[in-house]
Hints:
The structure is a homotetramer. Chain A has helices at about 20-30, 60, 65-70, 115-125, 135-145, 150-160, 200-205, 245-250, 260-275, 290-300, 325-330, 330-335, 340-345, 360-370, 410-415, 425-430, 440-445, and strands at about 10-15, 40-45, 50-55, 75-80, 95-100, 100-110, 160-170, 175-180, 185-190, 195-200, 210-215, 220-225, 225-230, 240, 255, 260, 285, 310, 335-340, 345-350, 375-380, 420, 435-440. The two termini of chain A are about 25 Å apart. Chain A is an alpha+beta fold. The interface of A and B includes residues 95 and 104 of A.
Amino acid sequence: MQGELHEECGVFGVYHLPGAANLTYLGLHALQHRGQESAGIAVSDGDSIRCRKGHGLVTEALSSQKLAELRGENAVGHVRYSTAGGGEWENIQPLLVRAKMGSLAAVHNGQIANARELREELEEQGSIFSSSSDSEILLHLIQRGRGSLLEKLQDACRRLEGAFAFLVLTEQSLYAIRDCNGLRPLSVARRGQGYCVSSESCAFHLIEAEEVRELEPGEILKFTAGGMESHRYTADTRHRLCAMEYVYFARPDSDIEGRNVHSLRRRTGRLLARRDKDLKADMVVGVPDSSLSAAMGYSEESGLPFEMGLIKNRYVGRTFIQPTQELRDSGVKMKLAANRSVVEGKRLVLLDDSIVRGTTSRRIVRLLKEAGAREVHLRIASPPLRYPCFYGVDISTQEELISARLSVPELCRFVGADSLRFLTEQEMQEAYGGEDFCFACFDGRYVTRV
Amino acid sequence: MQGELHEECGVFGVYHLPGAANLTYLGLHALQHRGQESAGIAVSDGDSIRCRKGHGLVTEALSSQKLAELRGENAVGHVRYSTAGGGEWENIQPLLVRAKMGSLAAVHNGQIANARELREELEEQGSIFSSSSDSEILLHLIQRGRGSLLEKLQDACRRLEGAFAFLVLTEQSLYAIRDCNGLRPLSVARRGQGYCVSSESCAFHLIEAEEVRELEPGEILKFTAGGMESHRYTADTRHRLCAMEYVYFARPDSDIEGRNVHSLRRRTGRLLARRDKDLKADMVVGVPDSSLSAAMGYSEESGLPFEMGLIKNRYVGRTFIQPTQELRDSGVKMKLAANRSVVEGKRLVLLDDSIVRGTTSRRIVRLLKEAGAREVHLRIASPPLRYPCFYGVDISTQEELISARLSVPELCRFVGADSLRFLTEQEMQEAYGGEDFCFACFDGRYVTRV
Amino acid sequence: MQGELHEECGVFGVYHLPGAANLTYLGLHALQHRGQESAGIAVSDGDSIRCRKGHGLVTEALSSQKLAELRGENAVGHVRYSTAGGGEWENIQPLLVRAKMGSLAAVHNGQIANARELREELEEQGSIFSSSSDSEILLHLIQRGRGSLLEKLQDACRRLEGAFAFLVLTEQSLYAIRDCNGLRPLSVARRGQGYCVSSESCAFHLIEAEEVRELEPGEILKFTAGGMESHRYTADTRHRLCAMEYVYFARPDSDIEGRNVHSLRRRTGRLLARRDKDLKADMVVGVPDSSLSAAMGYSEESGLPFEMGLIKNRYVGRTFIQPTQELRDSGVKMKLAANRSVVEGKRLVLLDDSIVRGTTSRRIVRLLKEAGAREVHLRIASPPLRYPCFYGVDISTQEELISARLSVPELCRFVGADSLRFLTEQEMQEAYGGEDFCFACFDGRYVTRV
Amino acid sequence: MQGELHEECGVFGVYHLPGAANLTYLGLHALQHRGQESAGIAVSDGDSIRCRKGHGLVTEALSSQKLAELRGENAVGHVRYSTAGGGEWENIQPLLVRAKMGSLAAVHNGQIANARELREELEEQGSIFSSSSDSEILLHLIQRGRGSLLEKLQDACRRLEGAFAFLVLTEQSLYAIRDCNGLRPLSVARRGQGYCVSSESCAFHLIEAEEVRELEPGEILKFTAGGMESHRYTADTRHRLCAMEYVYFARPDSDIEGRNVHSLRRRTGRLLARRDKDLKADMVVGVPDSSLSAAMGYSEESGLPFEMGLIKNRYVGRTFIQPTQELRDSGVKMKLAANRSVVEGKRLVLLDDSIVRGTTSRRIVRLLKEAGAREVHLRIASPPLRYPCFYGVDISTQEELISARLSVPELCRFVGADSLRFLTEQEMQEAYGGEDFCFACFDGRYVTRV
């Protein structure tokens, strides 16, 4: 199901560490799977903030020359996925503005559900917007607030509905904020005398930082010379982490809310297998990379061998040209190949993480059948996606969700599989070890007003 | 004296013409001498505004792909000189913002003298700034204004002190504004059923537009489907065009306020020659390119032959590497060469347009002497620069103006010339045909509160 | 063990198919794992040959504009790994020369063992070399040969010792050549009215070509309007495919000499497990990507769960900057991360494909131990590498082969593992189903004079 | 007449000077007017030769990183004009080959008239060609020669007919060669303990080298540790410098064969004026840049003022996009603008250096007339071009030479001028001070067999 679902981004911050830009560069590199369209870093040296950014991967957007221009011990960085296209430089984060209280740089992961209302209200009051980023809304709210910067941040956050993990850098300090439902992940770690903040814990390992804990829903962490202070912007909080983080976004070696992503995905595979006692099949195949963990679990539970029936081409860059009309329709072929000798004449259980539009699944099934697979039994490691997301997952309308339109048997015919089964919501909760998640895209029960 | 003095930029606008982006591209190309650091174009198609920009020459900043993305009939464009360095993308114009009344794109030539005050006031009211461009101040003032957009513009302009030529593009219309002292030039032309606006008239020729007239000081031209409407933002106006436009910035084939730039420079050369009746010399040499007109005039008046004693290398790009330490000091050599066989053993009258720091003049004199020139009599086609400019010419402090520190004989020794003479202020007024100019950098009489 | 061993390249050819350049582009994309340093395509339109090439991945080296310039129905292409660095454009293949019989373009996979002798001999006869590519030797030999081009090719090949798969393109025809020991793979496929030739069969699937067969050792295939003619340049042939193709180079979904690469690697894992009956361990971990197949086999045979204990970062490009001194030593961290929660406190069987210098293995073991692994039992899916390769594998000296210097127990201590075992030569032959391979880097029995 | 005529290139060499690559970079920068399509430098450090090259200006083709890779005290460099298009990297000079006697790098200015014959002969003997550069012919001839390298060079040069200035770099020494008719210029200078060689003397000034003398026709200079040795490859020599060097190619501050280029061009202008005693005109205008010297001379002789009636846009780069169909035909407008206020209502004498196809002249005349010029009297500072050049000037066929087809009155009508006069051949010889030139393109008397 790769290539269909995308969260907006990953954020990384550093406080009080020499070479903050370099550490942020590495941290963003570890978060690269969360967004490949643009990257940027802002660094404060105590006096002023400088920002460098660009299109593409971290390694493309930030040259060694740009990095060298970013001196200082405090930093925030961002990697971003965007459908908006190449030209919109203004939307690349961090956003850096000069305001009454000095310079501010902000990065954001998530989506503000009441963004349109807030924008209109701010414009009514005389604000102008130079980007379409939600970060800019936060910065305007801060600027119009009263009291200390912390108080302004608290006031501003109370106005925001939806999903957010913000980092805000000033000349002197760094703030990390997590929304009151905990929809987006955010963790803090220690390294030497300083701190790091990251969307996912996998980034800490790369720079040898020691994870301290995740931010609580509604928490604002303020980093100052004295250390790390915890504040809240509201008492009305709950744990509702986005389930799609586990399903698709996060890296298998990240731990979120105490659960290892790979292990949890593996568990979904086992649960799927448990209901397939009577299925006759020869092997288990996972769609690389996000569905390999579930396939491992299915294999273990079912006793069927786990085989490399699909190969992912690692070298598909952003600039790939699909050169012939006749081959254009099969874009998936550039990225995935069936391992013909392995699947030929065999009955396959094919594990995928989710189905959005259904077209990719259909192509993968066809790929395997054309390579000679006798049967393809598709198993999806999450329930049907039936409701749009307003919290940052790129499923904006119900029309494009095929499970909102087709029943499971209809969908099975559509994708051309010999059988199709989804994880049930009960199994998902069992695998995830609780109900403390946002399952809105599966069950329509949104955690905020939408 | 090339390479020392730089105005901020050139602006170009198009209203109601198919292919507005292409015409603006050509117009900016003709204005390229006004700024080579960055270029950008914003185009409105009636519904929305898109903007593309980049570093370098127009041909580098705007690829054919970027141009193709800019569809519509109304456009504004900008070329810019900046000392700020490569990383500050936010400062490249046009500035495009989304505000209450829709999208606005603005370009600016000049300098707002009370920018700092206005910024602080706006920040106090809750504005945040994402660039250091004066255009953003205008956009904030507009957004906070009342009434129609025209009324907002009028109110905003009344707040601004200093030099400005603004173009403001909305989804539906285009506004061109010139400050009440007329410090920066701005002209309007017709082409087919539409209009063009340009910092200099030389751009009209390239695209075969017919100049209509220059904007009056304090005028706001509003272009709409019905045609061109003239409005004023103040009745308190006067003609005080920046004299440096004639001395250095403008292209010789531009006419500003009814005067051809080349012809006026030529006249300064004649006036200089008229006082040199007793000077024994063999030839006249001009520093290319800006001082060739004055040298032609001096040659004609004096009867001395005009010779190509200095050659300019046309191929010095932005990326030139000065590779050896021993040659680094003579950077001027990369750009200018003495024509040894021509000047050897000769007594030269050397024409230059102005002297800022004195170091370039010193190098040119040394270049000619090392090439064998027997005598070098330096003649400057403008009076000594003694006062900083607050209206967009990049002379920010009195310290760097050598004429503020040294007398003419001292300066003559400093540059190593055999004699040195400047145009007098009286001669300048004679050459320019009036006193209706800003001569503040020569005489310290600023036209606004500073 | 990724990043240590590299073969020279992959070749792909097309005969008598419209859009030959596009098909070659896709074919090279599928062969991208064989070389990422440069890529090139030469196309013949019946009259003349044009060539376009560049540094980097296929998608970087060949822009859509370059592709559009390559019109014609016959083509050869190349992807290349090279340590020679960025500046040596001349060595990027195809090599295109103009000679007596017209233009010739050649691409080459392998290494000519007697290259130095042949070069000296040719230079003695007046040849000059503009590259250091072995392809140029072939082209010189052809040019100096007699008779038809086929006869020249046959004569030339008889002079060559070592490993080679050549494609030679003329204005009218295409030749594919495989050395008499069959050291390098080369296959032919049909597509519509034309043919494709490829180093690996995985490329055929992408463009929907039907594999016909592999070339025989010593065979020269000539493609002409009439079809495909088979010729030999020698009767002295044998099957000695390089075993490292299976161990490391080839893509898991390729079949070479009738064996699927993934399945064969899986078999080596099973054989390793069979000897580990008494090993107490908790899980099997494979080094991604080349050792996952072996890990799957080990897991199946041993009954131990296959776990994702190591994660590969997919986004490490050629331009990655290792920004801090303290982190420089752990370059492997940019590419590989331990899945801490999975391995913590566990006893691991770690599968890798081979050990060259030992330093990468040592880093991976350390990575896992630092992440909390209790024990790491390293299993290598090939025998110890003890002898240099003269046939295209980048192991040029015995000194850099750690197994040539250390015994297995010493090596185990060096890499810091709790136990270490290699596949035996007997097991390898069992897994590979025969002795018809070049095992020279393991046993020193070279198949040619060296 | 700019943009129509182009010689192949400029060459620069350095012997026994630290930082040879840097000096060559500067030298090529001074020769940039001789070719802007590509540039390259090869450097020897005594042991081996490295080469770096690229497309575009010297500053674009050779980054600081590439320069830094070129260590050594001996170097050769090249700038090149080519119609062949962007993709032909192989033709960018220097050409670097490995041959029997070691490595050789060669650069070439000129054209070998019997290149085709020599190529065929060499191919017959087994040579293959990887470029279409004449340098490669020389390198093949050298490689096939006998005796010392000097003897090989002498033998090789005796085989060459046509125009050439070669520099040949070996690991240990540098050779400079000028053809026996002296068709192309080549000079030598001293700098410190070493030497420089250049197509034009203007390059010496930039790097503060002292010109020693020009090479004699038929001379081979060998630079060794002991100094500079002069040799000949033939006794059959004469002075026949290409007259177009003075007319168009060379920089005004270069001296060639003892004549300053600017001064000689000025003289042609004076001679043209002398025959225009009865012409009624208001001003003299030169086509920038190559015709300004002649215009100065005409102005001085006639007493008519020299005016800036045409302005050249300095910023037309290689990537300029001509965006609209309606403007495409007037490409000349991007480069040249009429100074409307200066020429309006005036009678102009317009000086140009030559007429090739006539289309550019026609556009310039039209430009001036559209700007209001009352009369345009075109004066050409060289005789009509009637014969193709086989020595490096890009006039390959008689058909494209309009003076071969039209009489002067017909041509006057074609270009739309009010009168047209060329310099006569007698005047040319008077201005040039002799008959020791190749005037073949004017009079058809070729200096070699063609």
